[in-house]
Amino acid sequence: MRSRILFAVGLLALVSLALAAPVAAQSDDIPRTASGRPDLSGTYDVSTLTPLQRPREYGETMALTNEEAAEIAAAELQRNIDRQQDSDPNRGAPPQGGDGSRGAAGNVGGYNTFWIDRGTSAFQVGGEWRTSILIDPPDGRFPPPSPEVVAERQARRAALSAGEAPVVRRQNDGTAYWLEAGLDAPGPYDNMEQRPFAERCMLSFSSTGGPPMLPALYNNHKRIVQSEDAILILIEMVHDARVVRMNAEHDPPHIKKWLGDSIGWWEGDTLVVETTNFIDRPAFSQGTGAMTVTERFRMESADQLVYSFTVEDPTVWTRPFTGEYAWPRSPNKLFEYACHEANYALEGIMKGARLLEAEFRGEEPEGVVNPTGR
Hints:
The protein is of the alpha+beta class. Helices cover 18% and strands 22% of the residues. The protein has helices at 2-19, 66-83, 147-161, 344-361; strands at 42-45, 63-64, 124-125, 128-130, 134-136, 166-170, 176-180, 221-226, 230-235, 241-246, 261-267, 270-276, 292-301, 304-312, 321-328. The strands form three sheets. A ten-stranded mixed beta sheet has the order 1-8-9-10-11-12-13-14-15-5, with no helix packed on it. The chain has a three-stranded antiparallel beta sheet with strand order 2-4-3. Helix 1 packs antiparallel against helix 2. It is globular.
């Protein structure tokens, strides 16, 4: 009980300090390199309770009041306290297949609050508590989808209404096709390469490596190492390392890269980074290989960087959109994220799919131990 009380008191103290923070303004005491450029080198903790898209009840209101920001921080604190209660050692097993909720695997189990670090408050830019990371369109939400995406969604709904289970594959030009899923049709678990990159620990989760680089449930530190010719951004989540080539030209369009091809230049004291040449399924999974992301890194003060981004992909959205959020400096260090080493979890996913297929056919799976004993 004492540890819980200390935990609550500590978080309340952090929230109080955050709410009492003075309005941040562009500062003349920001660190600079020998060439006079702002020195972005250092570690930043980008965790925040502010969502990517603005809750609809805020409309076009970009800023929270101090009272609203305090309520958000207090709600997260109470959520953590509630979820850190000891589990009942005599509880039964969850129902087979889950309880139908949207919790981890139908509330069968997943990360608890020990693993989650979303931060303790919303973020401030220019002294304002923000209602969302997205700031344009004015409602702080993604713009309408492109006609191609609308047609794709309509086709999916029609297939589902007809009793089919379509598998949608998005291609680089934004077109799509679907296959009726059956025992003899391709499915999402036919081989390892069909699984998402994050599931295979090849790219960060939640576009933390991006671009755009977004916060996630945990591991929200980013390390910048700056030189005159290149800038490295090391991402704590998984193992992404972005290299921005300064004052360079993009590689030819046919050369695709996991995190795109990033080139940078300075506009006054703002670092501008443009990224193209994405693979067909980039880390920002809502985009495609046709996406262009323009990022801006600006030191608002010696202790806080403001990161903004604009995403353009006419194959997905009818217009570009822009977001920005604060990256406070942190004294913490980045630690290795080993993900699921040796990919044992992926092996289990593939075996599980074979078991389900065999069970559907009423057969015993070949080369796979059947844990049901049937």
